[in-house]
Each structure stands twice: as C-alpha cells, then as structure tokens.
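Archive entry. Fields below.
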Amino acid sequence: MRKFNRLTVFGFVVVAVMACAALFAPFITKHDPGAIDLQNGLMPPSAGHIMGTDSLGRDLFSRMVFGARISLSVGFVAVGISVVAGVIFGSVAGYYGGWIDSIISRFIDIMLCFPAFFLILATIAVLGPSIWNIMIIIGLTSWMGVARLIRAEILSLKEREFVEAARAIGASDFRIITRHLIPNGIGPVLVSATLGVAGAILTESGLSFLGLGVQPPVPSWGNILTEAKSTLGIAWWITVFPGLAILITVLGYNLLGEGLREHFNPHRKQ
Amino acid sequence: MRKEPLLEITGLRLDFRQDDRIVEAVRGVDLKVFEGEILGLVGESGSGKSVTALSITGLLPKTASVRSGKIIFDGMDLLASPEEDLRKVRGSRISYVFQDPASSLNPVFTIGDQLIETVVLHQKAAGRGRAFDIAVESLKDVGMPSPKELMSAYPHQLSGGMRQRVMIAMAISCSPKLLIADEPTTALDVTVQAQILELLSKLKEELSLTVILITHDLSIVSQVAEKTAVMQQGSIVEYGDTEMVYRKPSHPYTKKLIDCIPKIGGR
Amino acid sequence: MVNFIIRRLMGMVPVLIGITLITFFVIHLSPGKPTRLQAEMSPKISLEAREKLDKLYGLDKPVHVQYWEWVKRLSVMDLGKSFVDERPVSEKIGERIPITIAINVLSLILIFLVAVPIGITSAVREGSAYDRISTVFVFIGFAMPTFWLALLLMSLFGVNLGWLPISGIKSIDFEDYNLLEKLLDLIRHLALPVFVSAFVGLAGISRYMRTSMLEILNKDFVRTARAKGLPEKQVIYKHALRNALLPIVTIIGLSVPGLIGGSVIFESIYAIPGMGKLFYDSVMARDYPVIMGVLFIGAVLTLIGNLIADVMYAYVDPRIRVSGR
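PREDICTED_STRUCTURE:
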C-alpha cells in the first residue's frame, strides 16, 4: 500500500511539473521555438542548446516546452469533452432506463466496435487536421468508458432512499441527476478522466507523428518525432527527448490515476 | 474412565496481521476432543473459532501466524510437523466442511472429478476405476439420489443442500478420523439445515467419525453435540457436556447466548 | 450452445446496421462533397469532370438515398472503387487483410505466451521483488508511445546492430530462397512489427492476469483444495489457474480493436503492406471509398473477434456451457 502512495506522489509531481512547464513556457525558455537558424542545424546538446537543435536549427528544448503546452491542452480539452459527453449519455441511460437505456447502450456498443484510431483518422481525413478538430475528435471517440461508469453508478444509486426523498419533495429529474446522483459518481469519473488525459496525449502524439495531428510549425512532441524518423542514427536527441517526455508525462498521469483509484476504492485485502 | 483425547489443543495463541497492526485472534485456547463424539464450538464471528479450526492442519492464511501452543492429534504433534506430513493428514485423517457450498466447490470441475481427486490423492493403491466407485459410495453415504449420474454434474447444477452433501461426501471419502465442520448449515435454508445436521449425526454413528461442529448458533449445537465449548474473543469461556452447559452455564457470556435462542415452541 | 450462438448472431444485426450508419455518417461529415475535396487535391479536374465523378459515385442524390445505395452494395460485398487507382476497394483490402491478421494473430500468441505466465507468477509471488519489477514494466508499457518504441527498436536493431530488417515483409531475393530460408526471412521481418504490436497488450494482459489470479486465490474453493491435502502446485496450477484463465478469453477478444487500430502506426513505420498502411495511405490521399471500406471492415473484424471470444468463453465456462437446473 505504501508503495502505491510513493508512486502516486511521483505521478502527481510529474503532472505538476509538466503543467508548470506548459504554463510558464515563455519564461523558462531562452530561445524562440520557431527561430530558424540553418547554420546550427542538428547540433547535439550543448550549453547554448541544452537539448540540441533540429534540422532547421530550432532549439529543441524550447520546442519541447511549447510542445508541452500543446499536448497538455489537447489532453485536457479532449478529456473534458469526453467526460461531458460521457456523463450526459451515461446519466440519461442510467436514470431513465427502458428504451432510452437500450438505445444509448447499443450506441456505445457500436462505437466500441470501431478501432479508435481508425475512427479518428477517418474523421480527420474528412474534416482536416487542426488542433481544435483533434481535440473534439479525440473527445468524441473516448466518452464511452465514462458513460458506462456513470451509468453503472446511477443504476446502483437510483434505488436508494435519498432519491425517493428528493422526488417526494418535488425535485425535477434534472435536479436529481445533477445534484444528487452525479456527485456520488464523481470518484470513478475523476479516475477515468486522469487516465483519459494520458490516453489523449498518446493519441495526439501518435496523430501528430503521422502528420495528421498538430501541424508544423506548431511544435508538438509527436510532430517533433516525425523528424526523428529521418534523422535516426544521426541525431539521437531528436528521438530521445520528445519520446521520453511523452513516456514520463503519460506515466505520471497513469500513476496519479491509479493512485486516485486506490483512494476512492481501496483494495479489499484479507 | 478417561481415555486419551483424539485431538488436544493446549495454549494456542494466534496473531493476525491487519494493516500493520497485530491483532491477537486466539489467546490461549485449550480444547480436548474425544473419539466418537461431536463437539460443538460456539461463538460469535470474530471469536476466533474458525481460525482455531484452520490452524489444526496448518491452513491459516498468510496474514495469520501461530505464536505458541501445541496441537496433538492421534499422537502426532501437528504444529511441529512439516508441510509434507500435514498434507498427508489433510483430507485423509482430518477433513473439513466449510460454510458456503456454493463457493467452496470449484465451478469448472465436475463433482466426480473433485471427489475422485481426493481419493486418488490419498489412496495410492486406488486406480481411477476404484476411485470412481469409492466416490459413488461416498455420495450414497450422504444420501444423494442417483449418485452415478451426479458424478458428471457441475456444482452450479445442484441446490445448496445437495452441494453441502457433496462437500461432506468429499470429506468422508477417505475415511477420516476427524471431521471439522465450520458453519456447515449457516448458508442453507432452515429445512435443509436440519437434514444436514441429521446427516452428520448419522455419519458419526455409522463411520465412527469424530466431529467438531463450529457455529454461532447454540441451538444447533444443542441438537447434535455431546460436548459444547463456548468461545469469546479468542478464549474458551465454557466447556462441558452440552446438557450441563445448557442447564447450568457458568460464564455470563454463555448465559447471554442461551438467552438469545428464540424459545417459541423450542427446545 | 447452438442457441447461444444463434442469439449472439441475431444480436449482432443491429450493431452491424449501426456500424454502417456511423461509417457513412463520418465520411459524409465534410461540409463539401467528398469529390470536391478530392478535386482540391488535383485542381486540374474541371467542373464537368467533377460532375461526372459525382454522378458516378451517386453523390448528386440526397443523403439517405446515398446511404441506402451504399448498404445495398455492401450486402454484395461491393465496397466501391478507389479514387486513387480505380481498383475495387474490396480487392485492395482483400490483399492486405491476410498480413494484418497474421501479425495480429502472432501478437496475440506472443501476448498469451508471455503475459499470462508473468501475470500468474506475479500473483503467486505477490509483493515480491519479481512482482514489483513486473509492475514497473507494466506501467511503462501502458505509458509507452508505440511509434516511439518502433523508432527506437528500428534504430537499435536495424540501424545500429543490423540484426533485423526494418521494412517490408520480405527481402529482395525472397523468391530465391528455399523454404527454410523463406521462413527465417519472414520471421526476421515480422519480429519487430509483431513485438511493437503486442507491446501494450503484454502490459495489459499481464496486469489483468495478475488481478484475476489474485482474486481467484482468495476464493473458498482454493481453500477447499488445500484442505483436501493437495500439493500447492496443484492448488495453483490446476484449481486456481483454470478459473483465472476464463475471463482472459474475453479480454483477448476485447483487445482486437486496439490491435487493429495500432496497426496503422507500426505498418507505416515498418512499411508493412497491411490494412493499417492502406488506411494511412488512403487517409493521406483522401481516398474516401477506401477509407470507408477499411473503417467498415475494421469494425466488422472487431465484431467477429468479439463473437469468437464470447463463444469460446461460453464453451470454456461450464456454468454457461451446461445449463443449470
């Protein structure tokens, strides 16, 4: 048990550090992430450029820090959308039951049949890659898990007395759902959201890597790695740093999410 | 005339590790069980009765440990015996029947497989054919209808009462000397409870079985047990012939338990 | 058992319809007609040519008619023609599916052979150093961007060490090899893709196996097995394991969409001519018929995968296979 706590703290620290880096990006970087300097292309890490430069001579460190902004904001907005959509669908399905529940649950089943990446790529093919598009698309393809969670919570809470009581004093359905039922289901949703940010960051970086996410010159950890493909073996720093950043950030969110899960739902040990 | 007890527990102390705290579950238990009798071990949940029973053949969970004590069974010092020897005792000389037959049987194996497994394990001479027959005999002994067909059934196809009979059949299949039944009727309907208790009595007679019947229900004990021991918070507070314990309980806790028995048209 | 399968198949019908609806919906989300976007990619097409294209693909008709036309064609396995090279989409997909399926099956086998034992041992030795180290690997596995892993492996094994080829599925002189050499060549080419494909699944399944096993080890029937005097090995590997493995079948079925989706990345990086790469190429080229086709087929494969998993589970769990009283 204590082991988890230490790891959860580590996760939290990582998350906080990345968030700060993203927020205070202009203050912690010396160079302009977009400043092209062809003379100094592909320079290994040095005092002037602590993570080296890319093929256009841009400072990798500042691109990474600004990339954090992008990756994290995509993560947060996408998860925000998925949570909102998930909570709405899930609570309506759970509360009203009957044919509404059947339809929504079917819808969830159908959505889950599509390999997520395929669906996302197809939609991007149709709507074009832009930051907003990716945020919305990732959000709208990952709400199903949250929906199921909320639905399950509400199904189990629905029959409890406090719902009867609320109805007896004339509370509207909407009020019951939003004031009484949803707050009780917040725990698992928070866990899902934290893990969702991790997933969204992975998805966004994958998309950007393939050229279908954040478009250059806006830096994202994923699209910095696109360049890594052609500089494999020549410029290790372009491959290593962005990938490591993704790995550590996602790990941080995962650990934090798991820690939250333990917190809300402690393991029943013998 | 005093004979040697079949099972004698002296000064047993058991600890439980619970979230970094050590809890004393059993504090110095002394118990004697004589051959051919049914001993009722009564107590509330948490009194330590189940753990005491499990410790007899070393079936304690990893979080529990024996601090001190001696358990002598038929001349064998159980607490000092290595795991190898204990395994030979389990199922063949000392058997268990547990509380919830629904979860105590493995759902993915047939009744037959689970019965035969026990026989083959302890009676090396028996081939599968002979083991099959022994298993069927055990099922007959516990009063199961059409035992041969039952051998290929799965646990989920049986009712609670039938499953518990199967558990008992499994326990007696290798002719043990001691049967430890931990709350064998608690998970069953009241009508079925009576049947199982009757079965235990019958088996005691027919197979010269010695039984430790663990329960929280004093009325059950009064129906079938010759001797009764009452356990409270890790120690034995009352021990004697059942009649005596009932009529003249010496410990206030026993008195409380007796008072709790509903007396409507009762015993 | 047969009833079960029939019921499952009937339940699949509405889902199948839903899949067609969503596939159609997604592709027709664009503000303009698909041909307009296609035309924008090659601006030389005149208005007249575009109108001809529209007619050809039935895009001048109202949306619900288009949908119905498409579904009708689907039912005879006509997925249309690719915008890029006019070849039938079903043909293009057909030649790519075997490779993708082969890699996915190999990944599943790898996952099963490696993750399951790791999960079991972690559970049996709960809290030990082995358990803790494997948990660390599991978490890293969950956090790993697969494309980065693919790049790293490419760099390490392909470029630096030169042990494994980094693109395609056969070497240039493949045809000249004898059977054994051909097999070896295939293995060498597939090693990295299969590993990358399986990586996330390895983490997930070993974690799941650990949880499942731990749960089972706490069950009453395990205690009964011990009380019967069974040696610990039998208790664990016969009684507990059989039960812990049951849900794995379903989990493996549920990882099919993840595996198919993940194929886009490693197939592009390792230049494997599979469905994932086809999909990627068609997305880049805005080849809508192919996109629709692959999207649809991908979902259908998932559906089939789920069905197989459900049927296998029903077969393996006696509580379902043999109906109770």
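CURATOR_NOTE: The longest helix of chain A spans residues 60-96.
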